[in-house]
């Protein structure tokens, strides 16, 4: 993560104010590098991403090339991870699927994260009537029927990869907003916030510089929970016609497919499942490391 | 007590075998057991336990056998049917089943307010269409009359060779007038008369219990005229929607018969000896419909090129298929009529490319992107992926696949908002017209935009020809025309696939999967 | 507090109104209707059916009619289950989902909370790694994989339980475990995260410095703050878990409401969609209110605003 990120979300600041922020992030970066598990997780994630992006260029098969005579075969010399029922190479389909799933998982989660954190923080900090209205809006969106919403999106806007993010973003930010709001509400009565307020700092500055960094822990934990949910949600959306369409694959659709055939062709579930889990474990290690590194209080030690 | 229960419990199937209780899967739950408002053909399997028509079906080859009617006469012109009802036919409450019950039922089914989707089973009856269109509100104009308590006279508009078969259909099942009218107007849909405790039927079983989302239980009806032949004491119809769950329920001894078999399990079951997997041809074709009102499929050369570029042999030998046969025509060759004309479907990529080139797309160059729409299921998707590759390879055209939510898919097909759309057709009756009727110009299921007066004339004349040989020859002419005009791409002839416990005796595969329960019993082997 | 709750309950009215209105019009604008089927229904019959259900009236009048009925607690007839009303369907199926949901919730809380607290307290110990990995596994293995796996091993291979159905008491075990584990994983991760956050706070350090026993520090001081994220998560999660799970109910053939939530949308069963949405919305609103109350109770510094 670059040290410039917080300035982007924060209000316009004078150069003098930027300085301590940068060093905070720089310190965090140093601490992160010392955390072996986090480095391992980050490294693995990087390797997986690179593999998914460049891997398909080095393989002999394409994701749609079929061999009907072959059908589903277990891993072997020809097809390292085996083939599916249409005789397509699972490895190349997994790598292509990774592009989709990593892309969707990370981007859509980022969208949800940004909306959820900002919304929850503002509602929690302002409180009162504004909070009531904002949170009732969250209640309303929770309750609207998601399937109908997705079908409507497609009716009015056609199929479009952008819609995928809208659809996912529309539901996944809600719980994040509620969690952040709860945390902020409990923090804003703390002495250091009172102090900041009495110093005359702007609300924006208090929220983004003092409150949010203090609730990063739950945010990061919930983010690592959101990513797998988003990847699996993508499979449901492609069932509705949004998301990847055959013969393209994604990890979600591969896992769903594999689950239906797990007794006969176990490798069709095992390999996508393993790759999916590996990614999530790495993300999680990285997330935990980030949380520790960014913890303002451990920093004081 | 617990020890006995926990160590190795007796499965429902084992217990059922002792007590003659059949556990059958029916996939989706019926919305109603009113025979005139049935939704899915598969629910006929429940109705057959609860009711009986004028004729029944032989379990082997489905030829009409005496039901409530013990005998019948067809006058030589083929227009008048006289059905003689048996004296001992009884409703489950003890009332006699009379010819008047059938007249009442016909009046109810045809009444505009009931809105039954099965009026077309009466289309050949004189005056039926006018009555249901409310153009002639007087039912005496309809050709269904009771001459006395035990004689029913039916008059047709034109000779209809398969009419006797239609009389066994659920739409011709009688409903008990007093019960129907107790819970609403006679032509009011969706009243409470068909609920457990109220339902009065005339079948071999009576409705005992209906646990929503779980099971429908029917028990042997001692008042049924042929009760002596009924050996099952109860049937439990289990509504298990997921075929994977249904298969697991079968494997763990909770079901005797499944409604479906998951595609990936077919091979393993087929390899077992003895195999519980029963695969048999049914009267059904899997096809892709073309929207011929819009480019590029408004050009008959393009329409002919696409089916020629399909290597059906490879599809049916691939791992996703089991027991299906490559389609050579639209009508499956299983109901006494086999298409052997000159327009039979074949695989000829060379000719396909020539046709496409003649249409202005040599090697697929300049061919607009087309979309193959399908509703989501593993089989539909995998099949679409296979044909997509074949068309790309042999024609050089790019076909996108769009999986759609079912209702969106059906709606778009109906409104012709598609280019290529998957479809399955199951004939209502084992006669070629059960298929050829679809693509009549005014056919309600004709979503392709195909309208050929010549085809209409050939198909309709054939359907009204009583002489078998002559009829088949005319069907052949009609089908040749249809295959040449190519509004559809038949892919394969479908099969019925079920898992059946070896204990089930007296159940035979047949073309429409109508399995009566009278001759069925359970026996441990 | 009484004022707070009363005011929040008053807010329910506009919230429900917006939800009902939005859902009513959303379902109507979706392509396909309740009678759209693979075999198209002849237009004249479609007309009769629509007249029977009042779908032939102008949309605004249908909307007003519906609102009028809902105010009287009548959710109307179902389109799919044609001779049942939505009230009947909910009354029949909700108890099953409630039973499944509360048992699963119990599993989730009993497994997730203690594991989460332990993992946080014994941070970076083998116990933490074990619990965290188990939690991650619970998140990586989706229910549609875990459910069939459990059914295959305990139902088919070991013959301990039925693989489908909901009649015998033992039929509850596999579905509740499957559903419970997923939520347990979430709860475990969130508890651990929340606890870690709190265990570093100054007031905990102060308590420790004063010589309070570790158990006392954790249970009396830390738990209150540490549970905040879980509590926020649990509001909507409980509403979801109690109204049933489509996947679990499908895998184990359970006659619950969860399947109706999803299927009613697929069936375009307008009234059933609205009925389930109203039920779910009610639960969401009430549970989020409970969450807000609990949050204040957990953190006395907060006041009811």
Model description:
The complex is a heterotrimer of chains A (301), B (525) and C (305). With 301 residues, chain A is mainly α. Chain A has 13 helices and no strands. Chain A has helices at residues 5-9, 15-34, 36-58, 90-126, 128-143, 146-157, 161-187, 191-198, 203-211, 216-240, 251-260, 267-294, 296-300. In chain A, helix 10 packs across helix 11 and helix 10 runs antiparallel to helix 12. Chain A starts with a helix and ends with a helix. With 525 residues, chain B is an alpha+beta fold. Chain B has two domains: 13-230 and 507-522, Dipeptide-binding Protein, domain 1, CATH 3.90.76.10; 282-495, Dipeptide-binding Protein, domain 3 (Roll), CATH 3.10.105. Chain B is 28% helix and 19% strand. In chain B, the strands form five sheets. A six-stranded mixed beta sheet of chain B has the order 12-16-11-15-13-14. Chain B has a four-stranded mixed beta sheet with strand order 1-10-9-8. In chain B, strands 4-5-7-6 form a four-stranded antiparallel beta sheet, covered by helices on one side. The longest helix of chain B has 18 residues, at 378-395. Chain B is globular and about 75 Å long. Chain B starts with a helix and ends with a strand. Mean pLDDT of chain B is 93; it is low at 1-6. Chain C has 305 residues and is mainly alpha-helical. Chain C has one domain (1-305): Orthogonal Bundle (MetI-like fold). Chain C is built from 13 helices and no strands. Chain C has helices at 2-29, 43-52, 59-71, 86-121, 126-140, 143-157, 173-199, 202-209, 214-226, 228-242, 246-251, 258-267, 270-298. The model of chain C has no long low-confidence stretch (mean pLDDT 89). Chains in contact: A-B, A-C, B-C. At the A-C interface, helix 5, helix 6, helix 7, helix 10 and helix 11 of A face helix 1, helix 5, helix 6, helix 7 and helix 10 of C.
